[in-house]
Write a structure and sequence with these properties.
The structure is a single chain. It is built from 9 helices and 12 strands. With 303 residues, the chain is of the alpha+beta class. The longest helix is centred in the last third of the chain and has 21 residues.
């Protein structure tokens, strides 16, 4: 549940020296459980020259995670150049996170674009009954899910794609595969069997795709019966095997007319980058390329 305030938009941002931002953080620490600088691009906690602890630490370690949060508040605050705030609940702990973009001078010249994170841990402020019944907290978490989840299929939605939450930004290039897909004759299924059957086909299609891919991959509903499968650290050969597994799963488990033995089928198109960096232009070109290859697959299958 993001809170966006027009008054927080940075029109003429101040540039802090390392000493100044360190002083600001010291003044804030009495009021927050955690005060830290974060570089969302590489998922690292920033250590200032005055900081006695110079060890490397991933920003998501605070949440007991081993990879970037999919709905990273700091990343979105940096991209949108405005303060964002959100609730997060993990391991029966409730956090309120405020992420504010700041500009900090480099000692050797230049400016770093970082995020000042202010975190309140609320677990000790709620009774066990509140945590167990959790009506308020469940509503908060549900609101978070609604931002990025398609209500019908429970795949990720277009907003998730537009905000590039499938990207893992740790400063390293990686192999990436986009698979564009859409269901064959889906309009005919809707027209012949009704929308309830159409909804069943869409929901089961996503369920089977999720069973086939890994937990770090993403199934995104781009609209209608069109989906994008994002495969992290994957090559075209492995993507081809995933496609074959999805086709088999559909044939075995996505039968919508048992009397006629009709099952849902799907067209696919692949795009691949050996060095994926998450830039918007690269994402757009990969999606367009995968979509074109899917269209060619449809032509070859006579649809």
């Amino acid at each position: 549940m993001y809170q966006k305030e027009q008054s927080n938009q940075i029109k003429e941002p101040r540039v802090y020296s390392p000493e100044e931002i360190s002083h600001v953080m010291e003044n804030l620490r009495p009021f927050f459980d955690y005060v830290r600088l974060v570089d969302p691009e590489c998922c690292q906690v920033v250590r200032l020259p005055s900081d006695p602890d110079q060890s490397q630490e991933a920003c998501y370690a605070l949440w007991d995670r081993n990879r970037r949060c999919r709905n990273c508040t700091s990343k979105m605050a940096l991209q949108q150049e405005k303060r964002l705030a959100k609730f997060e609940m993990m391991n029966r702990k409730i956090y309120y996170v405020i992420a504010s973009p700041v500009l900090v001078e480099q000692p050797e010249g230049g400016i770093n674009r970082w995020i000042l994170e202010l975190v309140v841990e609320n677990s000790g402020r709620f009774s066990n009954r509140v945590l167990e019944e959790g009506a308020l907290i469940e509503n908060i978490i549900a609101s978070e899910h609604e931002l990025y989840e398609d209500s019908l299929t429970k795949a990720y939605n277009r907003r998730y794609f537009d905000e590039r939450l499938f990207c893992i930004r740790d400063g390293k290039d990686r192999e990436m595969v986009f698979i564009a897909s859409d269901l064959k004759d889906f309009k005919k299924i809707n027209d012949t069997y009704g929308h309830s059957t159409g909804d069943y086909v869409l929901k089961q299609a996503v369920r089977l795709m999720k069973k086939t891919v890994r937990s770090d991959d993403s199934i995104i509903r781009m609209g209608g019966d069109e989906f994008l499968i994002v495969l992290n650290n994957c090559n075209p050969d492995a993507a081809g095997r995933i496609i074959d597994n999805i086709r088999r799963a559909f044939k075995d488990e996505l039968v919508y007319d048992r009397e006629k033995a009709l099952y849902a089928t799907v067209n696919f198109g692949i795009s691949y980058r050996e060095h994926f960096n998450g830039e918007e232009a690269q994402i757009r070109s990969m999606y367009e390329e995968a979509d074109q290859h899917m269209y060619l697959d449809k032509k070859r299958s006579g649809l």
